[in-house]
Design a protein that fits this description.
Blueprint (H helix, E strand, L loop, with lengths): L15 E10 L3 H19 L5 H18 L6 E9 L4 E7 L7 H5 L6 H7 L3 E7 L2 E8 L5
Antiparallel strand pairs: 1-2, 2-3, 3-5, 4-5
Helix pairs in contact: 1-2, 2-4
Amino acid sequence: MTITAPPAPAPAPAPIVLEKRWTIQSLRPPQDAQSARIQAWTSLATFGWTGPASSAVAILDRLVRNASEHGQCSGEKIGVRIARTEAGDLLIDVIDRYTDFPLFKQAVAGHLGKGLGQIAQYGAVVSWHPHDHGKTVRAVVGGARS
């Protein structure tokens, strides 16, 4: 296992206006992602977010699939949070139990797999941070500015 240094903290987002949190009992990546997509569409409909909802749902789908496939989540819970900020950005957080993220920069650049590279192509800013019970991978998507 490769251990990487924790990343620099992401800039603090604008204050949160609305948020929705839930957990997914991980079964298999396609089912985990489908559950996340259903919850996301429902949440976004009530958030009044002016950004591209289909892009936000696709980003969440990819983050949940990555957690399910690579985050040691089989049979475990994956945490999800979607939040809208005062600035109109959407924060998409996915929490898994694996505390490391080897080769994060290469993954976001699209040199490893396709997930995080695709998320960056949607215009999202992707970051991650470890914590006591795993890690959080965050995508920040701009609202009407995207």
